[in-house]
Fold this protein.
Amino acid sequence: MQLYSETLGKDPHTLLKVRALYRRAFPRRERMPLRLLRRSIGAPCVEWQAWFCGEAFVGFTYLVKDEQIAYLFYFAVEESVRSRGIGGAILAAVLQKHEGKTLVLDVETCTEGAKNLTQRKKRLQFYLRHGFAPAGFCWRHRGVHYTALCRGGSVGRERMKQFFQKYRREALGKRR
């Protein structure tokens, strides 16, 4: 498997593929407006990568970082290539690139009665298999409950709030 990534820029062909996967992979209330994500292109704290296997687009990652933390905001793999090790390979590449930092991400909390409980459990198991552990706190955003996971260190809720405030200022140009 020849896996590689390209920094997402202004190439309209790749942007269309990323946008389509973004909309399929994340429910509306879990998505930031795409215009905000596009605004962050080129910000030093943001890495938005399109991933390819050979010539085929297979997924994307949207990661925000500072000196100690790398937060995997969005990670999606094309449906047609899931369960083939590509997601694990992408995650391994991200982990290797950010070695020495605490890698943090959120998953939907596995709440009994959730419509997509099976999918949530599969997603959680994927990250646990790849060395992530519960960070010890949960979030609620737009009515969705998330469990924070981390690898390579630990983080707390307050540190993550500071992290997100810095991201909003530096990448999105928001003061709040």
Remarks:
- The chain has a mean pLDDT of 90.
- The longest strand covers residues 56-65.
- The longest helix spans residues 157-172.
- The radius of gyration is 16 Å.
